[in-house]
Give the backbone structure.
Amino acid sequence: MSNEHYAIEMLHITKRFPGIVANDDITLQLKPGEIHALLGENGAGKSTLMSVLFGLYQPEEGIIKKDGVEVTIRNPNDATALHIGMVHQHFKLVECFSVLDNIILGIEPTKAGFLRKAEAREKVMALSEKYGLHVDPDALIEDITVGMQQRTEILKMLYRDNEILIFDEPTAVLTPQEIDELMEIMRGLAREGKSILFISHKLNEIMSVADRCSVLRKGKYIGTVEVANTTKEELSRMMVGRDVEFVVHKDPAQPTDVVLDVEDITVASKMHSNNAVKNVSFKVRRGEIVCIAGIDGNGQTELVYGLTGLEPLKSGKVIMNGEDITKAPIRKRSVMGMSHIPEDRHKHGLVLDYPLEYNLVLQRYFEPEFTKCGFLRKANIRSYAERLIEQYDVRSGQGPITMARSMSGGNQQKAIVAREIDKNPELLIAVQPTRGLDVGAIEYIHKQIVAHRDSGKAVLLVSLELEEVMSLSDRILVMYEGEIVGELDPKTTTVEELGLYMAGAKRMEVQ
Amino acid sequence: MKQRTPLLRKNGFQTILSSLLCIILGLLVGYLVLLVINAEGAWNAIIDVLKNFMKYPSGAARMKYLGSTLVKTAPLIMCSLSVLFAYKVGLFNIGAAGQYVIGAAAGLYCALMPGLPWYVCLLAAVAAGAISGAICGVLRAYCNVNVVISGIMLNWISLYATNLILKPGMDPTGKDTFRLVKEHKDSILPTLGLDKLFSNNQYVTIAIPIAIIVAIVIWIILDKTKFGYELKATGNNLNAAKYCGMKENRNIILTMVISGALAGLGAALFYLSDIEQWNVNSSSVPAMGFNGIAAAFLGGLNPIGAIFSSFFIQHITLGGGNVDLSHYCAQIADFISAVIIYLCGFVLFFKSVINRFLDKRDEKRIQREKAANAEATEKGGNK
């Protein structure tokens, strides 16, 4: 064991934050040329550990070794000097610069103060060729796809001759096709001798691409396993600490009255002059989960904005429980029993500089339980927040008074889901409700959504995850270019057929 | 879960400590500047600045000048409340200076021309400030114009408009407006006997208690009410406010209306006490509104803190007038108080310094404890 060679070793790392031990005696050893997955729930300490490796945090205890030699990493510059590179979950690119400019940013080759871009271009193109990272060097970042932006980030690391590449949840933002491509790229990089740390909580991806996998749980090191000798079930047990069910158990739906009746609605697009949603009609009944499936950017976002009142409709009608709410203000819709788990939790879902407890009453603060004669009833807010935190297992450093900003993404999402479901809405509009969550939390939220359906309420789910669409919904509506192009029954359809509709290769007349 | 936070970690205590650090640093830098200019008189000068009204030997005189300091503190409290109220809602109301000026115009106009009673003048000033704030608010809400830009522009418009409006009320013997005490006694704020407390300082009026009461009201609004909850949510995240059904545009406009009203009231509290008159040829916006920014930050963006920070700022500003002019040029007084006020803005910086220091100390303590524990177990094992 001791004579084995490691590219990077993090030995007995401990990092504390006020109220929480984010990393408790964690050891991570990365072999040269391997893809090493780092698996853990939301808030398990993965990002903290990587920030320590990248020099953003200093650990209280433990040492880091590179090629067997102890090193100190005080800041990201030190990390770069040690040839450690990182692709962050949210890319660090200059939007209005070209791909090439972004890659060379910070280490531009110059002569007498003048840029020598031709030289840089050659090197970038050579790297791009070698690793199959297709980019257009002259395109602006703001014009290219997320997948190409990610390839730009990878090229940035390679251009700096990095040997150790960290990928922080790289697939969260990609389409299924792009994910496959990325996996191929990662394998290629490993073949060329690069060592890859792959942070993820998606078990399928880890099983398909990683050599070994280290698991963290609640800041503690659980163990490292050879991926070839393990199963998805074992990994999830290590991560969550109990058995996890991957299949959503639910009885057949028994739809009754119509709750939401959407008639021929059209919503303008902010991106282009074309309408984002074109003459869409559908109904959602009590006791069923209707899912809008589709590839990102086919009008789902605007459809939800139109239904919830965030954007005005160009034409058409929205009727909820028999009442026309086409022009109703957002607050009225909410009071009538519409809940909305928004797509973008930072943009809409949370007031980041408010404590958790204030965020948990964001939809209900005006109710008599929380406000009396214009004054907030803080004791009631506190006890309500404590109940939700307990019930939905929202983890944070200081409980109800934790600033939302300082919570991990998964726990922020859990807080929003808790708030919206606990309102016991007539209609729950859930957009990507499990985005960025680990399997344990996904299981829990899926159960909550099914339970909500079973209590006789209506659910409209918008999801990009095919697995979620297939397992959770009772009826699937496929959206393509702003129109509903198919209505499918998840029990009789296949993922492949669904894919054909989503890609616009197939369509049926709906209604 | 329920741990007692150590005193040093408490937010309120940290704010007070940082504010004190700012003051000390400001005085130190001010002292250094005096040393450089003229080493001989530096110590006396800085003591003079600090002493302000305390330089008078008799108790009665001290009380009288303390009263004058307080009279000038009241409008500053209002300006700093105006700034901090908007700031809590995510708007930087640099236009408080202009709203203050337009408040002065409305208040003095009502006092000088028709000679209306003081409460009408007060309300007129509040209304004028509110309208001026509303302009910025409407521009921000519906045209997405930054309130800093519209505020600065309005500062100048307000200044010259005020000169125009008050010109007819100019005392022909000078360049200022008439002294109210000569012309319209009814327009002066009542003293309610407060002047007696301060050695018959006639300028001590109900302005001071009004300012303190308003500060407390603002604190309650921001911290305790549904209205404050909505405003702060809107300030922090406009989209989230919209998402949960708050009327986000109304909140922005209302914030600026209240912010402007506070600044306008500040002007009325100042000019209707008759301690100073408006110079109808003035070509610079009075510093009161800008000092409100410093006072707001020095007070840790807390309405109650604003009371004390405003007093301190007026204290050293007036104290600056005591500097011995045989050693220094006349501008030194303003310069020294400006340096100190400037450094008052560093409260947030000092807060982060304190936190970093505490983090380091805690780390060390935990390590020491660990080492001690390890030693203890080792010894135990040996036995």
